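My current task is to audit a protein record that another person submitted. I need someone to confirm that the token line plausibly describes how this chain folds. Take the sequence as given and treat only the tokens as open to question. This is what I was given:
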Amino acid sequence: MIDNPRSPRVRAVAKLAKRDARSQTGLFLLEGPQAVAEALTFRPDLVVELFATPTALERHADIAAAAADAEITVEYVTEAVLDSMADTVTPQGVVAVCHQFPTSIKDILKPDADGAGPKLIAILEEVRDPGNAGTIVRAADAAGVDGVIFSGRSVDLYNPKVVRSSTGSIFHLPVAVGAEFESVVERARAAGLQIIAADVKGDDLLDARERGVLDIPTAWVFGNEARGLTDEHLALTDRALTVPIYGHAESMNLATAASVCLYESAFSQRSRRQTP
């Protein structure tokens, strides 16, 4: 039982809440039973250390079983130690340390075994809010997106809040990081994708859907929460679309708008494939 919140080992885990420590070690912090269970199920090879309070492990027998199957030792810790390790106020008794595992853009854009390229991807350009970024990854996972690309000016994929907001989806689909926006757009277009910006100054999303604009392979671009995309970046896209607001809301949260856009494309593409 690890019971000293000030021990070097506990401090080393806690430091992973900071980007410098993540960059230096190539590790990141994973908090909560849901995210840890997803890691153990889909990518147990990434789990370096696993910590839990005895009470939490009793409540989450599936985590204990998955750890045993993967031959990963669970280190028992006190509540005080877990609180010191975690970035959240209520980590729910389970924390893991994992290897970072970014995918290359080449792998996201490459054709599959049948020679078909990606049908739908999401590009995040200067998305700074970690909650938004993680929620977009989660929405992309739910919509069956082929991959997500974080530009170099976006929040760190392994920021604890990004990881938490994705609720384990970072283990389900490929996510690339660090590329310059211009290069990402050029490579996506070369892979056969049209480039659509989500922008408040764009055309109506519903009208575009009815015209069949969303039927073909698409890379959606989502910009900064406050400023959106620059005019220079918008000029690199093929078109801009906006989610219409029918009520009295002044605006829509970025992650919510991104979810709508990705699902509209997913619906359109699947309807097209299913039409005789």
In short: Residues 216 and 269 are 7 Å apart (CA to CA). The longest helix spans residues 254-274.
